[in-house]
């Protein structure tokens, strides 16, 4: 079993839809949770960063962490065609040399 | 633009050959990370250097090696190439060694082994 599981999709939604992307993990020691966005033929870029549990909102994006369920989510409101990309979750433990553990990524297509 | 520069962008070579991928980190970043990305394995961490020293090792094959130079640029050497080494190779950089997880990625080097 992988430490981080992420449904690869693809996920296809109409423009304006609310998108929910999810990852589950098995290691209860994870404290830092990130979402990266990767456009085709580009490197991943950090989208959202959360420490421990709770929600974080940034514009149309909301990241949620539920440590009791070992489950993290990224919500995209009013999705746009420009949101079409692969979304990767990543997480790490606390302490020095926090090795990031990555999900496989979910491919999202937002159709105009 | 992340500020991380990788060369070459594309590379086609034959099995058994050796290639070198180069990475210049963002100005001021001391850590360099190398990742391999393939469709079935996702993003796989290979190795990390911090200020010239190896800091962490991931799933890096013995045929692969890396180093970080005094000017902080890094090179990933891949030798005795096999078909399965075809992948996207990303370099990322960050200011610190542990950090908050914010890595800045280059655009990658796409390696095709024929």
Written description of the protein model:
Chain A is globular. In chain A, strands 2, 4, 5, 9, 10 and 11 form a 6-stranded mixed beta sheet that branches. Chain A has strands at residues 4-6, 11-14, 19-25, 30-38, 45-51, 54-58, 61-66, 71-76, 85-93, 101-102, 106-111. By secondary structure, chain A is mainly β. In chain A, a hairpin with a 2-residue loop joins strand 6 and strand 7 (61-66). The N and C termini of chain B lie far apart (31 Å). Chain B has 114 residues and is mostly beta strands. In chain B, 0% of the residues lie in helices and 53% in strands. Chain B has strands spanning 5-7, 10-13, 19-24, 31-38, 42-50, 53-57, 64-68, 74-78, 87-94, 104-105, 109-113. Chain B has no helices and 11 strands. The interface between A and B is medium-sized, with 22 and 23 residues.
Short description:
By secondary structure, chain A is mainly beta.
List key phrases describing it.
A: about 110 residues, mainly beta, 6-stranded mixed β-sheet, 5-stranded antiparallel β-sheet, globular, B: about 110 residues, 7-stranded mixed β-sheet, 11 strands, about 0% helix
Instruction: Give the biggest sheet of chain A.
Output: 6 strands, mixed
Largest sheet of chain B: 7 strands, mixed
Task: Report the end-to-end length of chain A measured between terminal Cα atoms.
Answer: 37 Å
Overall geometric form of chain A: globular
Percent in strands of chain B? over 45%
**How many separate helices of chain A?**
0
The secondary structure category of chain A is mainly beta
Largest interface: A-B, 22 and 23 residues
Calculate the terminal CA-CA distance of chain B, rounded to whole Å: 31 Å
Proportion in helices of chain B: under 10%
Strand content of chain A: over 45%
Radius of gyration of chain B: 13 Å
Residue share in helix of chain A: under 10%
In round numbers, the mean pLDDT of chain A is 92
What is the molecular shape of chain B?
globular
Structural class of chain B: mainly beta
- Number of beta-strand segments of chain A: 11
Assembly state (oligomeric): heterodimer
């Amino acid at each position: 079993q992988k430490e981080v599981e992420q449904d690869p999709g693809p996920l296809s939604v109409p423009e304006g839809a609310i998108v929910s992307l999810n990852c589950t993990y098995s290691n209860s020691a994870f404290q830092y949770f990130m979402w990266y966005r990767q456009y085709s033929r580009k490197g991943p870029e950090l989208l959202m960063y959360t420490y421990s549990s709770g929600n974080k909102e940034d514009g149309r994006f909301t990241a949620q962490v539920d440590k009791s369920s070992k489950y993290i989510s990224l919500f995209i409101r009013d999705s746009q065609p420009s949101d079409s990309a692969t979304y990767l979750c990543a997480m790490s433990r606390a302490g020095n040399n926090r090795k990031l553990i990555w999900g496989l990524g979910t491919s999202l297509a937002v159709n105009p | 633009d992340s500020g991380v520069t990788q060369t070459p962008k594309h590379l086609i070579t034959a099995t058994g050959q050796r290639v070198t991928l180069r990475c210049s980190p963002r100005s001021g970043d001391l850590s360099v990370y190398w990742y391999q990305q393939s469709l079935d394995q996702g993003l796989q961490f290979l190795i990390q250097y911090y200020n010239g020293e190896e800091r962490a090792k991931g799933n890096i094959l013995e045929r692969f090696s890396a180093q970080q130079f005094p000017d902080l640029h890094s090179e990933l050497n891949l030798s005795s190439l096999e078909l399965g080494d075809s992948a996207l190779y990303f370099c990322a950089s960050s200011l610190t060694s542990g950090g908050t997880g914010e890595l800045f990625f280059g655009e990658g080097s796409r390696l095709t082994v024929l």
